[in-house]
Amino acid sequence: MVQLNLKATDIEIIHKAVQTPPLPYQLGAKVVHFNTEIEGLSSDVIFIESNVPKDLAQRLIEFGGVYFCPVPPLPREVKLAISKGLKSVRGKAKVSSLNELYDQAISAGMSDQHWHQRQVALERWGNDSSHQTPRRLTDDALVPPGGGYFRIHLHPKRFPVAYDISSNEWRRRLIH
Question: Where are the alpha helices (DSSP H) in the chain?
């Protein structure tokens, strides 16, 4: 579990990141990644796992700052280590067993718990890349049984022109 230690000022900053009109400047990147085995609405899972208030989690989902996939993807370091291992044996032989892949993943820094969650999800969903690629959540959807991987952009980026528009101009552009 991630359990962010969010202070009132942190939550206030996250609210400002998704306000309309936006701040006159762009906040720096702040991204949270976690794997979960909890089922339920996405906003509930985000609240439980990362301590982000539920209303703010729903706003981040509406804003497009939350991504989900049922199979936890391999961390970048593990992908690189495995691909280097495959390149070194490509002419001779391929990785012959899951144990060799496990050893390479653990030596590259992947935790046992992450490996186990990934293997359970692969058995359930298969090795299709579409299940391993995080997709943007467009609504407060149910997390499927067995959970999955979340990537939450707490300070989501906007198009640069959004910062050039004055607050009066924003009021004219909003449709009620």
Answer: 8-17, 42-50, 54-63, 76-89, 98-107, 112-125, 161-164, 167-173
Would you list the domain boundaries of the chain?
8-72+132-170, 76-125
pTM, 2 dp? 0.76
Q: How many CB atoms lie within 10 A of CB 141?
A: 13
For 67-91, write each residue's pLDDT tens digit: 999 999 887 777 777 677 665 544 5
Pick from 156, 150, 124: nearest CA to 137? 150
- Give residue-wise pLDDT tens across range 1-60: 555 667 777 788 887 888 766 677 777 788 999 999 899 999 999 999 988 899 999 999
Which residues, listed in sequence order, are joined to residue 149 by a DSSP beta bridge?
35, 69
Query: What percent of the chain is helix, strand and coil (3-state, nearest 5)?
Result: 45, 10, 40
- Which pair of structure tokens corresponds to residue 158? 């906007």
